[in-house]
Amino acid sequence: MSDPGTYVTDDAVRTGTVVESGSAERSIGQLVAEATAEMSALVHDEIALVKAEVRQDVKRGVAGGAAGVIGAVFMVFALPVLSFAAAYGIHNLGLGLAWSFLIVGVAFLLIGALLGAFAAMKIKKVKPPQKSIASAKQTAAVLQNVKPHPREAGEPSTAVARSTV
After folding, report:
1. Burial letters for 43-61: b for 16+ Cβ neighbours within 10 Å, e otherwise?
2. Does pTM surpass 0.70?
3. Whole-angstrom Cα distance, residue 27 to residue 149?
4. How far apart are CA 89 and CA 95, in angstroms?
5. Nearest to residue 132, comparing CAs of 46, 42, 45, 52?
6. Alpha helix positions (H), 125-157
7. Residue 25 per-residue DSSP state
C-alpha cells in the first residue's frame, strides 16, 4: 500500500498524509503544533459532550418546572371560583357554610401538594454531566503522567538570543 521509502503515522490515518522516511525526525515546532491541535480537538470534544448532557438535563428541568408553574397557575385562578362553588354545593347538602368552605380549602391544598411533589420529583432527576466529568478526570490523569521526551547525550542545546527592542 505504501512505498518502501515512506511510513504511515497515527496522524496520517486521520489526516491522510504520508511522511517520507528522510523526515522521520520532526522539528519541535511541528511537535508543538501537533500537540496543540490534539489538545484543541480534545477540548472541543469535551465541550460537545458537556453540551449534549446539559441539553438533556435542561429538558428534564423544563418539564418539571413547567408542571410546577402550570399547577400554581391553576391553583391561583381556579381557587376562588371553585372554592365558592364547592362550598355552596356542600352547604346545599345540609352541612354548615363554614364546614363547607373548610372542606374545599383542604381539598385544594391536597391537589397543590400533589402537583408540587410531582414537580419536585421531575426536578430531582436533573444531574450534573457525569460522562463529561469522568472524561475530564481521565484526561487530567493522562496529562499528569506525560513527561517530556529526553534529549540524547550528544545533542547540543541551542540558546535563542532575545532582542531588547
Report:
1. eeeeeebbeebeeeeeeee
2. no
3. 13
4. 10
5. 46
6. 130-144
7. S
Residue 32 has pLDDT above 50, yes or no: yes
Q: Please say whether the beta carbons of 115 and 125 come within 8 A.
A: no
Which residue has 517530556 as its cell numbers?
148
83 contacts 112 by C-beta, under 8 angstroms: no
CA distances in angstroms from 79 to 98, 117, 136, listed in the order given: 16, 19, 50
Contact, 15 vs 21, CB < 8 A?
A: no
Tell me if 72 sits within 8 A of 116, measured CB to CB.
no
Mean pLDDT of 4-15: 51
DSSP H or E stretch at residue 76? helix 28-92
CB 141 within 8 A of CB 55: no
